[in-house]
Specification:
Elements: E1 33-36, E2 41-43, E3 50-55, H1 79-88, H2 90-95, E4 98-104, H3 108-118, E5 123-126, H4 131-136, E6 140-143, E7 146-149, E8 152-157, E9 160-165, H5 174-185
Parallel strand pairs: 3-4, 4-5
Antiparallel strand pairs: 1-2, 1-5, 3-8, 6-7, 8-9
Length: 189
Amino acid sequence: MAFDPTVLPPDLPVPADDGAARHLPGLRMPDIALASTAGGEVNLSLVPGLAVVYCYPRTGRPGEDMPAGWDAIPGARGCTPESCGFRDHNEELGRLGAKVFGLSTQEPAYQRELVERLRLPFQVLSDQDLAVTKQLGLPTFEIAGMTLIKRLSLVLRDGLIDHVFYPVFPPDRHAEEVLAWLASSVKPS
């Protein structure tokens, strides 16, 4: 059977909190411009107001296999369903004042195909050189010669990391988790 990135197997291993993101709240996003699927670049340290940056390992494409052992890595599988969740809740997040960004280490051309195929209404940013990942000390893992970001989400306020969701599970319901947290914590303007 061909790989379908939109379907999550029922027996995925649940990631444990290894403490690798505890240092992030309160940090300023690095002054680094990242290539965007909208063309040009985005510097997350300069994004005004509220932003949600969901970081994910790598998305798959229908019919193309993921690296061997992918589903056995806690938290690896689910990037496409997570992206679809943020797509489906983008308007609600926007009503709370949040601008959504996806972030992975995949190259921009791969990400543009994803944005078009899934009709994502927000920008996906490429940290293919690991500049932001290394400067922030984001949790990563290695597979098939690639360094990938472990799944986490950052809530930014004027470029400062206000809140971190880590580990993220299940990925297909994470956008709802972020939405609920924002709805309970965003102060009316």
